[in-house]
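pasting for ref
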Amino acid sequence: MLGRNGAKLWDTPLTWYVYGALEVSWAYSLIHYIRIHILIFEDSMYTTSLIGVFTCLFMILGSKMENRQLRIAWDWLGLLVPLILLLKDVSQGGLLIFILYLLFFSFCLGLGLPSVLSEVMQATNFENRGKVSGLLCVFAFSSVFAFILLGSLLLVALMKALALATYLFKVKFEQLVKVDGYFKAGRRVTLSLFLLWLLFLLIDSIASMNLTVLLNEIDVLILRLFVILIGLPALLVSGFLFDLYGRRLFILTAFLLLGVEYALISLEPSFIILYPVLDGVSWGFLTVFFTLVVWSDISPPEERELYYVLGLSPPFLANAFSELYRVIGPRIEFWQLFPLVSLFLFMAALAMFFIPETMPEAVLERKRMERYIKSAKRFKERRV
């Protein structure tokens, strides 16, 4: 249970975190299946673009979903989605029926996610938020990886069923959870973080599509598999480092690493061998920070759902943009594109330099003092 200072990772009931992990895992797995399934059977590059835009709209509509019955109804509808996909070919039935399916899927994906993350993250504070976020991300991406290997929609349905059961059980503990303080960042900083996250995803999606210029499709898939395998531990490590040393330094470093990566590939394509390591580690840190950590750091409790819309919508928008760009975008050679991507990433690192640290200075100073005291004790023990 949550202590008075709320400083420990497991002071909050474990059910609270399991619920959030199951909801995010369900959403990520469903997105992956819908994208692959519809692109294959519908042969339409605009499908995922529509899902991305519709999902963002439903996120905005659901950012103030405080009615508990509506939340439970949303979970029940989400349980129907994998069952519908399992039993029915949604590409059959005409354009109108297909669009209605897309609206329904987008509704089930987007309406409740901001509220889910807001509720789960309100049980965290500045000192354990990174660890909790890292664990949630590892659980979510591992579940997606398992779903890719197994390919069973029943696994997705099971995730949602467990999430619904956990939510009903979790309600008993809500009075024990206090909402922690937040860093007053200001609207300009909030907008800067959102734009930085969105622009980075847009540019990175275009750059990733151009990997096929250097490698064949099988090699690109293998490369991305290694990125995931390296990125999973980076998700966990990043959370612990965020809580120990603050956020900004590591995000600045992640942008610098990605900038160096694309600069090296621009100079010599054989440096693509470094791509899985640099990309996996950097993406691990950026995902935990921009998806979960920063929005809880800077959001007033009464507006936290809306802030999570800012964190969740850029991946959907970037995916929608990348699909449109694949169809109608101009062809750019990698030796023209990668230097520009590298330049943007260095500029993103420079922008992070001017964005304030979102972990309060008082917390950082206390952690520095705790590390100093521990080091002094160890030194004294060695001298004795």
